[in-house]
Write a structure and sequence with these properties.
The chain has eleven helices and 14 strands. It is α+β, with helices and mostly antiparallel strands. It has a five-stranded antiparallel beta sheet. Strands 11-12-13-14 form a four-stranded antiparallel beta sheet. Helix 9 runs antiparallel to helix 10 and helix 10 runs antiparallel to helix 11.
Length: 289
């Protein structure tokens, strides 16, 4: 299908983009990479009257460390994330996730900010950001505000962004010594939505005791899901096969998958347990490497 007619705007400053959002209200949509919005427009699932392309706004595509915080600009392409030496050194989980996102053509244009702002529990980055305890930075007419990742996803394709706000940056605490992270998803074919996915970041002290744990799940809940009982089962514990198995079981029980062409509910719960178990093991291996 062909998208409905729309008016195209290409502001060159953030203030101009925000002013356009205020002018057009709910009839406007932000365009960054376009790999979520454009397909929805072609299928007429979304028919905005105004498209505001923010790709000409400078300063929104940088990856940097500021003190104890990693900062990733919202317009950072997936390919930038995939090949960033800084991320490879401190956050191997990004190498895991970007390689599983569609194909190189999509990764060359798709943005990390757009992936999150779309508010889709089937996307990969929401679970990763939950595991990393990220903060979303939004900019609007009243200035800049920070939104904890656990407060960002509000419903199906709904986020905490106000209609006149733009997601401009993702901030992530730098990992302590002894930290490892990992992500994987099960998919029927390259580029398909995940049947299930799991993101894990953990920190181990010198005795092998877990002092930090974050676990996010992909596409097995209406909202991106933090596996809270699984985290509680690991925190403060020595990481053993028994403890990992318990955490994996909790994750399979606490998710809410829907039956579809990718599998029934029982199968998806079983895959969640498998993925959580494997990602905990992988993150723990990286933590002590």
């Amino acid at each position: 299908m062909i998208a409905a007619d729309f008016n195209y705007e290409a502001p060159t400053t953030l203030d101009e983009a925000i002013a356009l959002l205020q002018k057009y209200g709910d009839e406007a949509k932000i365009l960054s990479g376009g790999h979520s919005l454009i397909p929805m427009m072609k299928l007429r699932f979304a028919s905005p009257e105004h498209i505001i392309d923010i790709n000409n706004i400078p300063g929104l595509a940088e990856i940097s460390i500021d003190g104890e915080t990693l900062k990733i600009g919202a317009l950072t392409r997936e390919a930038q994330v995939e090949h960033s030496e800084l991320l490879k050194e401190h956050f191997p989980i990004f190498g895991d996730v970007t390689k599983l996102i569609a194909d190189p053509q999509v990764r060359n244009m798709g943005t990390i900010g757009g992936n999150l702002a779309h508010g889709d529990a089937a996307n990969d980055h929401p679970a990763v950001m939950i595991a990393l305890n990220a903060t979303i930075v939004a900019t609007g007419p009243n200035g800049v505000r920070s939104i904890p990742i656990d407060e960002f996803f509000m419903g199906f394709y709904m986020t905490a962004l106000e209609p006149d706000e733009i997601l401009t940056e993702i901030q992530i605490p730098m990992p302590a010594a002894g930290t490892g992270s990992a992500y994987h998803k099960l998919e029927r074919k390259v580029g398909d939505y995940a049947t299930a996915g799991a993101a894990v970041q953990l920190t181990l002290d010198g005795n092998g005791v877990c002092t930090y744990i974050g676990i996010g799940l992909t596409n097995v809940n209406p909202l991106p899901l933090r596996a809270e009982r699984s985290e509680a089962a690991l925190l403060g514990k020595t990481i053993t096969d028994e403890v990992i198995a318990e955490a994996a079981q909790y994750a399979s029980e606490d998710c809410n998958p829907s039956a579809d062409l990718r599998g029934d509910e029982e199968y998806k719960r079983a895959m969640v347990a498998v993925l959580v178990k494997r990602m905990i093991h992988k993150a723990a291996q990286r933590a002590v490497a």
